[in-house]
Amino acid sequence: MTFNEGMQIDPDRVSVGGGPGRGGKIALGGGAGGLIVLVLALLLGGDPGSLIGDLTGAQDSQVAQAPGGGLPEHCTDGASANKYVDCRVALTIQSLDSVWAPELPKQTGQRYVEPKVRMFSGAISTGCGNATSAVGPFYCPADQSAYFDVSFFQELVDRFGASGGPLAQEYVVAHEIGHHIQNQLGDIDRAQRDPQGANSAAVRTELQADCYAGLWAHFADKTPAPGSNQPFLKPLSDNDIRDALSAASAVGDDRIQQASRGRVNPEAWTHGSSEQRQKWFLTGYKTGQVKACDTYSAPSVDNPPALR
């Protein structure tokens, strides 16, 4: 999926470096990136707290504390978003805003509040605690912010075998903003109440964020950008969808377990299987409906009702 070249990047929509003050615990409902550390640490018997600090976690000297600045000068328009990953993240966020601003109130009656978005490198202090780049992309409900270290996208390819295509990266961004939608609708806390298992609320929460990412893709090439008669993105191709499905599959619990331990244990799942993640993304993509993404009411997360 590529951007229309004339789309302008708002240099102030995304901040780079720095972070807000410290706060409570990190959101374990992180998306594809949070999965890399959190799931591997849990499955292999490690301590995710060693990579995601709380008030006494990462050393102050390692954490970016200064107020965030704007995007680098090379991020100007759709053409730069098609070339540079950091610019792509920024313009994807604007596309997500343009989709959710009308669709959330239309479909739920809830006004869309733009999340804060921060790109960082190394480590950062968040409203949920200190985090390192090893966590990958994640969403913090306490400060309503999504955090991205763009180096993760190459790791997604090199370490987990995902496609390097644009929609694979945009899917990750859309998934994290999906957590923001859950936060607005009052659902994100469900994951903490039932944090592990094949049919757990944690898995259902992550699959719903995948579905919301698909919902964005449904509208992304059709919804005009503010002040324009063109959408941010050019029409999706079959290859674009394959890119997104590749990323969803790459971070499935079963695939990571098999690669790391040589066996699959559904009782330890926190994000869902590769097949489940693909199915729920497709549910959002094919329906464009928030109600179709109700993973909590689905009798089985293996078979989204909307795909039957």
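That was protein one. Protein two is written in the same sequence-then-structure order:
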Amino acid sequence: MNVSEALIREIVTKVLEESAGKGSKPEFEKHIDPSGIIGIKTSTVKCEPFQQDGVKLKDVVTLEEAPRMGCGIMELDHTSFEWTLTYDEYDLVLDGTLEIEIDGRVVSGGPGDIIYIPKGSHIHFQTPNRTRYAYFVYPADWQ
């Protein structure tokens, strides 16, 4: 029996996509290429409540998919919360205004802006409006 490379790629892609969604319909649009490249449609990601009112997030890659770097979407709605980072983080603002308060100073970013927060920083994430941003963390297991 002759099995083509295209057929093997199709089978591997289907298995990876099903395992990412655990056999059910994915919660958002994500494509996992057999090479390991992952494409995510951030506009389809629905965030879930996280620790306090006005704060929602959704990790969009698993440790199996990306064992070294983590990624997710976070939404803040007219809120502030304190956090100490045990990892390095980049935040890419998608909508709204993200403010990072540290030592009485505020670093602010709007749509398209990137904010880097080094490991060990004790900060307040805050927003004067409804804000949505993508976070990228290293190492991946940020919790």
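Helices lie at 5-20. Keep this in mind for the problem set.
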